[in-house]
Amino acid sequence: MCGIVGYIGNQKASPILINGLIRLEYRGYDSAGISTIEKDGLSIMKDKGRVKNLYNLEGIDDLTGTIGIAHTRWATHGKPAKENSHPHMDNSKTFSVVHNGIIENYNELRKFLTENGYTFYSQTDTEVIPNLVHYYYSKDTQSDELKFLRAVQNACADLKGSYAIEIICKDYKDCMIVTRKDSPLVIGKGEDENYISSDIPAILSFTRNFYLLNDLEFAILTREAVSFYDKDLNAISKKAEVIEWNAASAEKDGYDDFMLKEIHEQPTAIRETIGAKFSETSKCEFDELNFTKEYLSGLNKIYIVACGTAMYAGLVGKNAIEKLCKITTEVDVASEFRYRDPLVDDKTLCIFISQSGETADTIAALKLCKEKGAKTLAISNVIGSSITREADYSIYTHAGPEIAVASTKAYTSQVMLITILAIYFAEVLEINTTTLNTLKKDIMELPAKIEETLKLSENIQDFSKKAYQEKDIFFLGRGIDEAVAKEGSLKLKEISYIHSESYPAGELKHGPIALIENDITVVSIMTDCKLVEKTVSNIQEVITRGAKTLVITNQDVDEKMFDLTIRIPETNPFISPILSIIPLQLFAYYISKEKGLDVDKPRNLAKSVTVE
Length: 612
Ligand code: AGP
Known about the structure:
Elements: E1 3-8, H1 13-24, E2 31-38, E3 41-48, E4 67-73, E5 88-89, E6 95-103, H2 106-115, H3 128-139, H4 147-158, E7 161-169, E8 172-181, E9 186-189, E10 194-197, E11 209-212, E12 218-221, E13 226-229, E14 235-236, E15 241-242, H5 258-264, H6 266-274, H7 293-297, E16 301-306, H8 308-325, E17 329-333, H9 334-337, E18 348-354, H10 360-371, E19 375-380, H11 386-390, E20 393-396, H12 409-428, H13 433-454, H14 457-467, E21 472-477, H15 480-496, E22 499-504, E23 521-526, H16 532-544, E24 548-553, E25 564-567, H17 576-594
Parallel strand pairs: 16-17, 16-18, 18-19, 19-20, 21-22, 21-23, 23-24, 24-25
Antiparallel strand pairs: 1-4, 1-10, 2-3, 2-4, 5-6, 6-7, 7-8, 8-12, 9-10, 9-11, 11-15, 12-13, 13-14
Helix pairs in contact: 2-3, 3-4, 6-12, 6-13, 8-12, 8-15, 12-13, 13-17, 14-17, 15-17
């Protein structure tokens, strides 16, 4: 939530900063602003609303500074308004700050600073930071090259909460300081120029070399170099990591929206995620994992913990792990798990799924499990993300950058990876060879089947035209299809703002069927041959009560019963969610387009939720 960008080099900073913000806008779009060091001191330009509004600000084209910081906001403290927009300055206009995160003790700090003569002009938690830096700066009697850094360090020592911060100072015209704790920030290394960003894709067109900062570390960026310090200001060295993603993957590439592009990238994302982890004849291998039969067979339980879509991918993972490995597996929402004193010990394996690797609740849940002595395994799409740095083991989906707020290719890649992980566990446990070999063969055929499924979009688009004015839509399924129903329902509400619910189809008559009335849309997924007849009966019950029905299936059903039947290719039940979710992603997408909404940036949401 909130995106930050920084630039120091020899080019005019403002266009680079605005360009970076546009790419980070999915993280929040309540307001935007930039601050640069100009000949006559610090300049700030900011306004409420989208990043593009910055182009209309008077004087923006006159900025010539080659150092600057920038911010796009997802409002937490203080309503979306110009005065609450970042950057924020201290009272003396010596420091300019952008911040992503939440300062939990800001009231206490505000009181302290007010008592010391400082005035506040916004309702934000952030405004305490530049003033606190100024407070320590003005008290420091030395005037050496580290005075600025000392002031930032002293101020940060007073902060409670999470932050990724960039600070510039009018007295230090050739550097900027950054630091982080529990909020993302990467440093891009260029030739006589350096960049800062909340994530890698936003600056991928400038560099592929990135430094990753750990919690409580500081970096001073000059044009030529980046120097790193630990929390006590001891100098430390870091090696830049080369990121393999290409810049084009962070562009729309001819598609109207990132979401549509990302839906169509799923065959590639799945191919890349399968990679060379196994062949039909060889066992599954993860270079990063070294689990033994003794460890896995001694487990009392596996927990899969995540938020939103990633948690729904976990539900599919539970099915695979329990059926293939016979290990009890529980799936939980990270924000609940972390506060309910879960029964976790050294015989529990805890798996955390997070596309961004920066979700605050998921990271906190992981830390809790480590404290309780469990081994932790992270599944993420972002190399070097916070979750992967915290976990004992990390494995990666290879979906490439996912920009649209609504997750699509990351979800299917997570389902793929956790299924392969289940195969790996089963092989380590030496169980079920025939089932595993069939599943591996079916996985290899999956990318081509995704391509086939994507060709079904026209019918779904037509059906969306009939359903886009609905107030409520229901999603039903049994078994693994119920997990898909949940994800389909989330996708729809996220980007179309239509209220939707998902239910196990058999649960309908225990209450929800009271909501079914004439012409309401009911979407149903039926991919399990053992359960299809039961689900058809449940759909019959809603048809009798006047519902319009959309059915996603690969089973032999009487299509005449339903308003639209989308036939997806047959596949192994363990991986059928990767195919059956695609029509639902397209359904949500076309409804949102039909309503004229911003598909990639739905209201109130942000791509990565770095606050509780
Ligand atoms: C997905 O469409 C959502 N935007 C959201 O539920 C997301 O999956 C969730 O916030 C978790 O994000 P993460 O995978 O980056 O941890």
